[in-house]
Amino acid sequence: MKKDTEERLLNKNTKPTSMRILVYEMLSSQHVGMSLSEIENHFEHADRTTIYRTLKTFEENGIVHSIQENNTTKYMLCHDACDGEHHHDLHLHFYCTECGKTTCLESVSFEKIHLPENYDFKEFKFLASGICKDCRDLKTI
Length: 141
Description:
By secondary structure, the chain is of the alpha+beta class. Helix content is 34%, strand content 23%. It is built from 5 helices and 6 strands. It has helices at 2-11, 18-28, 36-42, 48-60, 133-139; strands at residues 34-35, 64-69, 72-77, 91-96, 102-109, 127-130. It has a 3-stranded antiparallel beta sheet. The protein has a 3-stranded mixed beta sheet with strand order 5-4-6, with no helix packed on it. Helix 1 (2-11) packs across helix 2 and helix 3 crosses helix 4 (48-60).
């Protein structure tokens, strides 16, 4: 998997350092957004600043997109079509108030956003909160 990760990083104009490879592979194994602290806790001897810089580099190069929820930023891998100029994450981000997980609900898309003439947006973030399917299912048992 390491060789595949190196190629993915190089395709995004990102030098594949050891930490970048580790962070990418960890994020690729997740299906929920992860905060800096959660990522840091995953690595026993990693430097917080190095992880933060890795995430910022990933975001700048279209490898991850950030999700703002409450006072926390969470990160998720982007689609291959994303780059440093355009993140294709115009979908709903859902924060579960029960389990605290944030997921991308790509079935709820905002691809056709029509702004007034002479307006260009760089990013669009939409976060909903409530109870996710897994937590709701647990309550009905």
